[in-house]
Amino acid sequence: MKLLIVDDSVVIRRAIERTMKSQFFESIQTAQNGALALKIFKNSPIDVVTMDITMPEMDGLTCIESMIKIKPSTRILVITALADKGTAVEAVKRGAQGFLLKPFTEDDVNEALNDLLEDL
Prior knowledge:
- The protein has helices spanning about 10-20, 35-45, 60-70, 85-95, 105-115; strands at about 1-5, 25-30, 50, 75-80, 100.
- With about 120 residues, the chain is of the alpha/beta class.
- A 5-stranded parallel β-sheet has the order 2-1-3-4-5, sandwiched between helices.
- Strand 3, helix 3 and strand 4 form a beta-alpha-beta unit.
- The longest helix is centred in the N-terminal third of the chain and has 12 residues, at about 10-20.
């Protein structure tokens, strides 16, 4: 499986990437905003995405919606500091299957991704 990590914070991208190196992903790519993520997504066979919501150029909700239109089977885990219920509901409406709040631990990310992928 191939993973795309999307977050405008390099610290967050690296933290998720470090955590996922021990997982079963054959490749991991990163993007600092939704516009770049969508470009990568269109040109690479991505299976799983971790997505921030608040980013420059294209926000995560818009990016999720675009990705799901291109490849509906994509598994998307939103990882955000936006703790309101409305954001979570909107992310799921647009196609996300999981939601994790920042700050997170390595175990939090592993558990959220395992939940996301358990029925594959």
